[in-house]
Amino acid sequence: MTTNEEVVREAYRLAEGDTLDGPGFRALFTENGTFNDMPNSLTFRGDEIPQALAGLAGAFPDIHRELLGVHALGDVVAVELRIQGTHLGGFPTPAGVIPPTGRRIDVPTADLWHLRDGRIETFNCYNAANVWLAQLGADPDFEAAITAATTAAAEA
Fold this sequence. Notes:
Elements: H1 4-14, H2 22-27, E1 29-37, E2 42-45, H3 48-59, E3 64-73, E4 76-86, E5 91-93, E6 96-98, E7 104-116, E8 119-127, H4 129-135, H5 142-155
Parallel strand pairs: 1-8
Antiparallel strand pairs: 1-2, 3-4, 4-7, 5-6, 7-8
């Protein structure tokens, strides 16, 4: 019998740049399972799940997840990890694509996996998006954010 921890470890193995297997990763989910990119408020379902993996591997072909701690608590598996890779492809953002920089990323992340009957029902990825962007050289534009918020408040 496969444990919940083994299912999650297999998911990470299938998402590695050198073994990327989107359909295999998707097969670990329940029919209505979801992959939630929490910092970016994105939810992937069904065939979108392997597409999300492929998109990330397109930007970071050598993507690797260094698992620092894996803790199975019943039907929940909590993982502390670091997402690592080299930025060799376009990285999409709401403002457009960041062209390849060749920079390495090493992003602190925490993932929560909720399983039911040995399959993934919900995968919530909490990566430090601000660290990720800073490592790519795309620091936040706080001045523009303050100006936009000030303008919006004045118009309200």
